[in-house]
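Hi everyone,

Forwarding the result from last night's run.
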Amino acid sequence: MSISTYSPPAHHALDLVYLDDAVVVVNKPSGLLSVPGRGADKHDCMASRVQAEFADALIVHRLDMETSGLLIFARGQAAHRTLSYAFQSRKVDKRYIAIVDGHVPTLDGEITLPLICDWPNRPLQKVDHEIGKPSVTRYRVLSHDPGANTTRIALEPLTGRSHQLRVHMRSLGHAILGDALYASDQVREMAPRLLLHASVLKLSHPFNGQVLSLESVPEF
């Protein structure tokens, strides 16, 4: 799926994960933009859907259009400043679940490959050891499927580069199933969507400081 042929999923009701006077957390479906894209046909997005019900909601971070899972909104400027700082200063624990091509042999590890935008091929990102920005992803194998030759894996991005998880897994030789940007035709066609889901968010509440532990189970 490409943004030029944007066809967002039907909107029935918000899949609310958490709600109070400072925070709204929803499950974003795959295929829906986090924020509006260019052009009137790309106005429908998770932000517009949330703001239709909570007018004070301000988006704090983003997920790729193809990625599903937990997306957090702040209610009001004060909460937004606090939550935005938490994300920028890496005080938010983020975990993803993915299914990747092939048998990942090492049960856990850390990927430290610097990334930068591939300008002639935007929006693609690439590994660049000379001018790339430091990018770190921890991973842990959850299970193997020998029949399908795939691996279910938990991913923890310690940095927040664009397409970081997708590029890092491809660079290991294990592209995420359904990835239209970085997988081979064969691997892309192994799933009807990108099999990447934001499954865990742990962060301090912007007003009372209590730890919010939020979890979402992927549909795959």
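The mean pLDDT is 95.

Cheers,
N.
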